[in-house]
Amino acid sequence: MTSNSRSRRAAPSAQPRLLWLAIVLTTAAAAYLLPEGGWRYPAVFLLLWVLPGLAWHRREPAGNLVSALGLGMLLTTLLTLLLALLPGPLPQAALLAGATLLALLAALIPHAPTETITLERHWPVVAALAVVLLLAAFLRVTLLGYKEFQGDEGIVLQRAAAILLGDDAQLFRHQKGPVEILIPLATWRLNGLLHETTARLPFTFAGLLAIPALIVTARRWLPLSAALVAGLFLAVNGFATAFSRIVQYQSFVLLWGVLSLYHADVYRQKRNPGDLVLAAAFLAGGLLAHYDAVLFAPAVVWLLLPSLARPEQRSRGAWGAALLTGLLIAGSFYLPYALSPAFSGTSRYLLQERIGGTLWSWSGGRVWQMATLYNDTYSVVVLLLLAVAGIWQLRRQPALLLVFAIPFLFYTVVVVDPRTHIYTLGPGVALLAAAGFIAVWRAQKWLGAATLGLLAVISTVYLILLFIDSTPERQRTWETNAPRLYGTTWDEPPQYGLFGFPHQAGWRLAAGLVDAFP
Questions:
Q1: 73 near 54, Cβ under 8 Å?
Q2: How far apart are CA 101 and CA 14, in angstroms?
């Protein structure tokens, strides 16, 4: 073979790498040179939350785009955490350079060709997936910036602002994982300005990614049609919708928790060390978002136990790498946190005020009230009935049962004040209910189709009335403006744990008056 022929063969692989290099550098330049706010924000969003994931996608099979995007968001978050732990204000140049390097990994690190998955021949699947994602996007993005920063959002952004000014202790005073601070912190540092929409979009993106993540995870145990139904159930889940519309950690717990489950099962089947490392990385990342992520751990461990129990299937190198990865990610925050003065106060708060200082506290009534506020009562009842049928269908899949049973038992019989933390039931309910739906469909197709159609319509209308329609703001005027035809077993919403609902308290007007009279 001549050198000319070798160069001709090499050209096609070099061109995409050069194109990617140009895209990343152009985006980074725009994120630095464009005026603050305005057109700078799309470049900042792409550089921080999209391009690093697409870079890793080039090293993953084509079907793992969701996993690659989730990994990219995790890497950017870890970069921001390491910079935030340094003394002094968060360095803009280091954040910009680090995010650019993360996005250049695809061009800098050689990778072998990977298999591709084509869906063009399965247009009904593509159409169904598109409908689910478009419905989810409509519920999560429409009027995203209407609601003023409220409650926990304000606390998160106050702490991010303090870190920008050089307060090194803010992450440790937060009584939660640092992710919900780090996400807007990175965006704010590069964009220069932050408002309701720009602060929330990364959380919305994570909430949307959680849906295809659940679909590809469900597909490992369920038929493709059932996996798509599970995605639909999460798309119209009230908690998943509400928390995709605010600056809080829940969307990242769901995304990284589900991806940990996915990679654990892939490792169980294929014994690829990379999947074991990713399972550990995503579970540790979820813990950085909130302690709630530990509720995914029993299912992940169950999937991995067979490879530990059989010496011939155990790879010390893979397990060592996974353990080290998980410890480095979780320890990057929790080790210095445990050594800080704030740790003892957080421990007392969690054990005494939230858990109640006992191992038994029946909170079923509170769980039911919260579940039937964020979701309509009809859909909750139908999903629970389908989930019961799904338990029988999946009785030989303990991991999926654990995804539902662990958070259900923890927040009904252990935690005295669960509030909205029952959002962790969402993936488990969706998986079990999808399995139950398939059983109904096989018995009576017309009944299955009618059930799914009515549930989707009733849930969507309810979520529009609660989270999108702001005339009136129903959560604040429930006594007179509760959604008609949607009955409840209670008269007034709970006093605490109200997030994502339309809320205007006049702060924008006040800011305008301040600007008008300098």
A1: no
A2: 19
Q: What is the pTM of this model?
A: 0.93
Judge contact between 282 and 411, C-beta under 8 A: no
Tens of pLDDT along 197-244? 999 999 999 999 999 999 999 999 999 999 999 999 999 999 999 999
Closest by Cα among 67, 35, 45, 41 to 54:
67
Concatenated DSSP letters of 8-64 = HHHHHHHHHHHHHHHHHHHHHHHHHHSPTTTTHHHHHHIIIIIHHHHHHHTTS-GGG
Whether the per-residue pLDDT at 13 is higher than 60: the answer is no
Which residues, at least 6 apart from 400, have a Cβ–Cβ distance to it below 8 Å? 221, 299, 394, 428, 431, 432, 435
Of 448, 423, 390, residue with least CA distance to 222: 390
With b for 16 or more beta-carbon neighbours within 10 A and e for fewer, the 35-51 pattern comes to eeeeebbbbbbbbbbbb
Which residue from 393, 417, 421 is spatially nearest to 407, judged by alpha carbons?
Answer: 421
Angle between helices 316-338 and 65-84 (to 10 degrees): 40
Q: Which of 372, 389, 376, 375 is nearest to 447 (CA)?
A: 389
State the burial class of residue 185 (Cβ atoms within 10 Å of its Cβ: 0-12, 13-18, 19+): buried
The one-letter amino acid at 464: I
Block residue for tokens 């995870």: 217
Write the CA distances from 44 to 51, 160, 416, 473, integer angstroms: 10, 17, 41, 33
**CA angle (150 as vertex; 149, 154 as ends), nearest 5:** 70
Q: Encode pLDDT of 468-511 as tens digits.
A: 999 999 999 999 999 999 999 999 999 889 999 999 887 777 77
Q: ∠ CA(161), CA(167), CA(168), 5° rounding?
A: 120
Q: Using the Cα atoms of residue 478, residue 479, residue 483 and residue 489 in order, give the sign of their dihedral.
A: positive
Distance CA 245, CA 199 (A): 10
